[in-house]
Amino acid sequence: MISLHWLEWFPVVLYLLITLLVGMARSQTRFSEEQFILGGRQLTLPAFIMTLVTTWYGGILGVGEFTFQYGLTSWVVFGLPYYVFALMFAFLVAEKIQQSRLLTIPDQFFHHFGNTAGKLATMVAFLMTLPAPYLLMIGFILHLVTGWSLTLSIIIGTVLSAIYVLVGGFQAVVRTDKLQFLLMYGGFLLMVALLVSRFGGITFLEKHLPPTHLQPMGNISPWVMFSWFLIALWTFIDPGFYQRCYAARTPATARKGIIISVAFWFVFDVLTTTVGLYARAVLPEAKPLLAYPLLSHQVLPPLLSGIFFTALFATIMSTADSYTLLGAITMGHDLLGRLPRWHRVPRVTLLRMGLLLTTGVSIMLAIALPSVVQIWYVVGSLCIPPLLLPLLTVYFPRFRLTPPLVVAHLIGAFAIPLIWFSIGWMQSPSIMVIEFPLGIQPMFPGLLFSVLFHSGYWGYSRIVSSINK
Q1: Which of 191, 201, 280, 413 is deepest in the core (most CB within 10 A)?
Q2: Exposed/middle/buried for 225, CB within 10 Å: 0-12, 13-18, 19+?
Q3: Quick one: CA dihedral 340, 343, 345, 349, positive or negative?
Q4: Count of CB atoms within 10 A of residue 1's CB?
């Protein structure tokens, strides 16, 4: 815990109040399901960029932790591969997603592969959309500055992030994202300018950082770097990307919006990496996960420190509220909405019920596994292998599996990394430090199964087709 000056509290409290007002203002009393989920599919290019940029960058404390420990490697890990895959997403599938006129990722499975595949995809997608890591980060900051228990801090952070989503749906998320976009960039630009002014530029960093911190590859092995590139494949199954594309006014808005967003992400990565390097240089004994808030409190005047704290809150909450809504959609639209007993319940009521269930599960997960990186890692390892290739083949029909094979693939590609995790957990001394079989990370056997399954079917189909000719 750190003791904040009242001027550090003031901008944060003001931001939270304004966010609630902006989120709940002009909210309709009645929504159709499509309006609640996608805001009527009227997302303009500026709004698309601001909501996508903010939603994609909620893991700010994790970025600070990684930069503090490994330096410029953070950009190679959390920046470069995501630019590559985001651009591929923009050119390959963004316009096709917008033109499909569906609502969710599971909708694609229900539509193309049948009910069983759709139900399985819904369960995997729900795990992906849980906002647990972002609620945990909000909880960490509240715990740090208030001294409240981590559990209480997580619950309060959840309420702050979910209440206006419950009222206004996607439109409320977009409105608050515009405010959070300005705060994100303004806060970090301010911090970088003040750090350079006070301590100096590259000469100061070279003098006070380990040599590997200023090398792009640092001291991380190529295999570890490769694993992080694979984790960046998350881009192709990210529900936030799909929701924004579905909500875009035109196909061109979806494609151009992602391309321009990559430029904004690059700028923000430069800012966050720079602040992380200064944190290591100025406070080498600080706790890595809290490097950003500790640096702010230590070196900035109280009011400016409060503005930077506000930027941190805005960065995290912009993702927490989006994923809270996405989890609500998966639970309300894709699961409850397809059960016969719930057909008479208004669709928006189901979405709001889904929101309450999503936040409850996320709170329990954040308390049970209080590590942002571990939650990301477990969820990514379990969800990327089963969803990635079937979802991509929706847009490239010649490579599609048959519905029964998609079901088999979903089960196998999820079960294999889950078994790998289970074996690792059983033979490891701590859930936080897991020793996996053969030293192989769980995602690799899951992805290998997926690639072999699809390539085997495609090769068999080519052989059968050539014989028939």
Answers
A1: 413
A2: middle
A3: positive
A4: 9
- Burial environment of residue 157 by CB neighbours within 10 A (0 to 12, 13 to 18, 19 or more): buried
Residue that the structure tokens 């990307």 belong to: 241
Q: What is the pLDDT of residues 392-437, one digit of tens each?
A: 999 988 888 999 999 999 999 999 999 988 888 777 665 555 677 7
CB 176 within 8 A of CB 26: no
**Hey, what are 244's tokens?**
């924004």
Question: Tens of pLDDT along 132-182?
Answer: 888 888 888 888 777 788 889 999 989 988 999 998 999 999 999 999 999
Cα–Cα distance between 323 and 142 in angstroms, integer? 20
In the block, which residue shows the tokens 């609502």?
103
Q: In this structure, are residues 269 and 79 in contact, taking their beta carbons and an 8 Å threshold?
A: yes
What six digits make up the tokens of 434?
A: 């897991």
Cα separation, 171 vs 165, in Å, equals 9
With b meaning 16 or more CB within 10 Å and e meaning fewer, what string describes 69-89? bbbbbbbbbbbbbbbebbeeb
Q: Which residues pair with 433 in a beta bridge?
A: 430
- C-beta separation of 257 from 52 below 8 A: yes
Q: Which tokens sit at 464?
A: 């059968």
* pLDDT-based confidence at residue 28 (cuts at 50, 70, 90): low
- Please check whether residue 137 is in contact with residue 59, taking contact to mean a CB–CB distance below 8 angstroms: yes
Q: Which domains does the chain have, with CATH numbers?
A: 6-368 (1.20.1730.10), 372-469 (no CATH)
Determine the Cα–Cα distance for residues 117 and 125; give it in Å rounded to an integer. Answer: 12
**Encoded tokens for 330:** 């998966």
Q: Which residues contact 274 (CB under 8 A, 6 or more apart)?
A: 192, 195
Residue 393 C-alpha from the chain's centroid? 23
The 3 state secondary structure assigned to 270-335 is HHHHHHHHHHHHHCCCCCHHHHHHHHHHHHCCHHHHHHHHHHHHHHHHHHHHHHHHHHHHHHHHHH
Q: What DSSP line would sit under 74-143, residue for residue?
A: HHHHHTHHHHHHHHHHIIIIIHHHHHH---SHHHHHHHHH-HHHHHHHHHHHHHHH--HHHHHHHHHHHH
The pair of structure tokens assigned to 384 is 């990327």
